[in-house]
Amino acid sequence: MAERCSVKIFLYRAVLFDMDGVITDTMPLHYEAWRRAFEALGVHVDKMDVYFREGMTTMEMGRDIARSKGMELSEGELNSIVELKTRIFNELVDSSVRLYEGVPETLMMLRNNGMKLALVTGSRRTSAMAVLKKVGLEGAFDAIVAAEDVRRGKPDAEPYLVAMKAVDVPALNCVVVENAPLGIRAARAAKVGYIIAIATTLDEAYLKEADEVASSFPELEQCIARRFEARPGRAIM
């Protein structure tokens, strides 16, 4: 892993962001929604059951959590628990969702410097769009890849491969920003040019497969600004 703020951001053409725990502080909401949904089956789910599986599609995560508790859900049972989880999550979004500090400014900075922007999430599209609408980021991304857009979620490369195709930028010209091991592995499998992790939901010890780690989104914003400033003739804001 490189030292902090080593990314030569001006060498790339697109930045692909995970959503939960990167753009928005929504991982606690996902955990609470899964906790309540499984509680209806008499099953206890703790925070790390959810956080370590972040990046899986909603269906994959529900199935995998159930299996870890010794349960093999039928398709009907899985659909029911996922629908309940989604409903609870959307209700929580209405009252509790928030952006991390510096997100709108960073997105604008990247776009003003010619970057394509994509959002790559394991959440269902309805949930992702509800979050983006609530925080005022509708239309902020050139492409959004959600759970329904792939057959296999993270750590498979498919979500990032779909995003790169959507923005029409080759892997080596892309930077990925993630906050969880499965997302980092997905980006690595997709052979992206550079991977930055943010230690918002997991300790840095879990993020060592990234090329570099930022402790927070404001730290990432400052890093990107400094790197753009290091190249003469580039607009920053």
Global geometry: globular
Question: What is the topology, as strand order, of the major beta sheet?
Answer: 3-2-1-4-5-6
Compressed to H and E, one letter per element, the order equals: EHHHHHEHEHEHEEH
First CA to last CA: what distance?
29 Å
Helical content (DSSP H or I, runs of 4+): 40-55%
Stretches where pLDDT falls below 50 for ≥5 residues? none
Largest sheet: 6 strands, parallel
Beta strands, count:
6
Task: Give the secondary structure arrangement, pairings included.
Elements: E1 14-17, H1 27-39, H2 47-51, H3 58-68, H4 75-96, H5 103-112, E2 116-120, H6 125-135, E3 143-145, H7 158-167, E4 174-178, H8 181-189, E5 194-198, E6 212-214, H9 217-229
Helix pairs in contact: 1-4, 3-4, 4-6, 5-9
Q: What is the structure about, briefly put?
A:
This protein is α/β, with parallel strands linked by helices and 237 residues long.
What would you say this structure looks like, in words?
- The protein is built from nine helices and six strands; from the N terminus they run βαααααβαβαβαββα.
- It is of the alpha/beta class and 237 residues long.
- It has a six-stranded parallel β-sheet.
- Helix 1 packs across helix 4.
Keywords:
globular, 6 strands, alpha/beta, 237 residues, 44% helix
